[in-house]
Write a structure and sequence with these properties.
The chain has ten helices and seven strands. With 466 residues, the chain is α+β, with helices and mostly antiparallel strands.
């Protein structure tokens, strides 16, 4: 059943392999369109940012305009208040100066009058010129007309004083006509004060309305922004969740593939070991028996001086060569024995055989006893060492090679170091050898590092965390 599932590309969790990649069955089809999803997210973000900028600009304009408008209105109203106070003050100054001049005949009061009379005239004209919300300027006009008449009467009074007619001057200042003009002047001032108060009330009311508008726009804009960004965050969250599902499915696929590779490696190792044992126990034993039989026949023919002795001798030699070849095949299929110390023995034998076969000194060193109970892992480490040794002898032109196996805490480290020409640009064959070593390291979840040595040569280090 396992082999059928592998052949059909099926996994235990119901996923299927498509185009060399495991596809999770539970993942939505939306994951097949990441570009479209990213486009939708980009559009949503663009709309949210644009809306945020527009609302912020509008809100900033309202906030900036509100105090400016209120400041303009307040400035006009305060100026009117100031002008009103100046008019009232100067009117009293002029009236009292004129009456004191009429009662005392002192010219200082006339000089004082002449000093402040132009100021009152300018103040009244300033009140007329100031912008006003109200179109009723009659009060200011009445005040100005009354002021002109009063000034004329007061000038005649000063003229009478200079002539020595103080009683006539005082009588004119206390007369009915002067009193009527003062009443007109007072009504105009009261109306002007009422207009100023109305303008202030209107300005405050308009400011309140403007403030309510700003607050309403702020609330609506904030609600719009919150809703927009919540929608954007929802889109981002949904896309992130889908991406996380895809990543989890991919990680499960990678994990399943690693498990599958390890299972295949173990099955391959078991099959290799079975074939090696079969060669050693069956074919090897048969060839050994044939060798003994051939040797027995050869001894009999030798005593009888039989002419077939040479033929049987060649047969016996062929049997011995076949037996040696079968033993080499069996040893290649089962390089590491099942016992815990089999890896060190296999590496020692590898170093010895390399020295004898290649005439290159190859040493094996160990800092302490290193035992590995998992024969599959031990076999992969042995094959990595063998591949590194082959590269050193065949490509690096090494004159000496060192193999070292050590253990520290829960880590087993294999080092293969040579004094050759060092690692360079790999050829196609060299690249295959390096990829094979990395693949074997990945099978047992070990890290492989290949780097040049400072004094020349190459060092291959494989670290297995147990």
């Amino acid at each position: 059943m396992f082999r059928e599932d592998v052949a059909l590309g099926r996994f235990a969790d119901g996923r299927e392999e498509r185009n060399g990649c495991a596809q999770p069955a539970e993942v939505s089809e939306d994951l097949d369109c990441p570009v479209e999803k990213r486009t939708h997210t980009g559009i949503a973000l663009t709309v949210a940012v644009a809306l945020t900028v527009v609302l912020l600009i509008a809100y900033s304009a309202l906030v900036w305009k509100m105090p400016q408008d209120f400041g303009d209105v307040a400035h006009v109203e305060l100026e009117l208040q100031r002008v009103k106070g100046i008019i009232v003050h100067l009117d009293e100054v002029l009236t009292m100066s004129c009456r004191l001049a009429a009662s005392t005949g002192d010219e200082r009061w006339e000089r004082r009058y002449r000093k402040y009379e132009p100021l009152l005239d300018r103040a009244i004209k300033r009140a007329i010129e100031l912008p006003s919300e109200s179109e009723d300027t009659e009060a200011a006009v009445q005040t100005d007309v009354a002021n002109i008449k009063l000034v004329g009467m007061e000038n005649r009074a000063f003229l009478l004083v200079r002539r020595g007619q103080r009683k006539e001057a005082m009588a004119m200042l206390l007369g009915l006509e002067y009193s009527e003009q003062k009443q007109v002047y007072s009504r105009g001032m009261d109306q002007l004060a009422a207009n100023i108060d109305n303008q202030i009330a209107l300005g405050v009311g308009r400011y309140h309305q403007y403030l309510i508008l700003v607050v309403s726009c702020t609330v609506l804009g904030s609600m719009t922004l919150v809703g927009t960004w919540l929608a954007v965050l929802r889109i981002i969250y949904r896309e992130t969740a889908q991406r996380r599902q895809a990543e989890e499915a991919l990680m499960r696929d990678i994990s399943d593939r690693k498990q599958l590779e390890q299972q295949l490696a173990k099955l391959t190792e078991q099959e290799r070991r079975r074939i090696g044992r079969a060669l050693h126990d069956t074919t090897g034993q048969e060839l050994t028996g044939l060798g003994f039989m051939a040797q027995s026949v050869l001894e009999q023919l030798a005593t009888e001086s039989h002419p077939e002795e040479k033929t049987v001798l060649k047969m016996e030699e062929s049997i011995q060569r076949a037996l040696a070849q079968v033993r080499r095949f069996a040893q290649g299929l089962v390089p590491v024995e099942l016992d815990a110390g089999g890896l060190m023995a296999a590496l020692q034998e590898l170093a010895t055989n390399t020295t004898e076969a290649c005439n290159i000194p190859c040493t094996f060193g160990r800092r302490q006893q290193v035992s590995m109970e998992d024969n599959m892992m031990a076999t992969q480490i042995y094959l990595i060492a063998k591949e590194a040794l082959t590269n050193a002898v065949k490509h690096a032109q090494a004159k000496h090679v060192e193999i070292e196996l050590s253990r520290e805490d829960n880590r087993v480290t294999l080092l293969v170091r040579d004094d050759g020409v060092g690692i360079g640009e790999p050829s196609e064959e060299d690249g295959i050898g390096l990829r094979i070593m990395r693949h074997r390291a990945a099978l047992i979840q070990a890290t492989l590092k290949i780097e040049p040595v400072d004094k020349g040569g190459t060092q291959v280090m494989c670290v297995l965390a147990r």
